[in-house]
User: Fold this.
Amino acid sequence: MSDLQQLSPTRRRPMKLYTLVTLMVCAIIGSVLLLVFALYSMQITRATRDDVKDTALGIARTFADSPDVRRGLMASPQDNIIQPIAQAVTRRNDLLFTVVTDMRGIRYSHPNEALLGLHFIGDDLTPALEGKENVSVNRGALAEALRVFTPVYDNQHDQIGVVIVGISLKKVEDQITRGRLNAVWTILFSILMSSLAIWGLVRVLKRILFWAGAV
Assistant:
């Protein structure tokens, strides 16, 4: 009989109540934080791209209203009226490029001066030649970029060209990554605060259960 008792499996001790509560609270908080991070990450991506697009549109519209751009489009690309101004705008705003074309799609400005007088690359120029602002992601002579197109009008409000502003997609992704990193630090801080709160809750619960004789 004693041998049978020795061979019988040892009964596992039931999980203590405060341990069970701790695991449940940790699971709930962890799930909530993961959901918040996923939603926040998507929101950061959308908000960053919208912000970059709005900034690029603002730059393009301002440049398209410049009298020098209008005057330059009345001349030849080789007259080099628009090119130095466009390059200054590109440097000042940390853009990939600022390109101006006439109604035939001929470039009047470009970071690579050898491409002046040549046709702009990309079908996404077509809506802008029809008087419609356009935003696209495409690759032309330079790196893949977020490209913003806005029409240029003369004093009689006749369209005479297009301004295209390009922002490197790598720059956009870098901004999104920085935003997500900030979200990660926020989540980690929340986890730390939650852990401290759970630790305090468990200590209080242990005392209550101890004095109630349940431990």
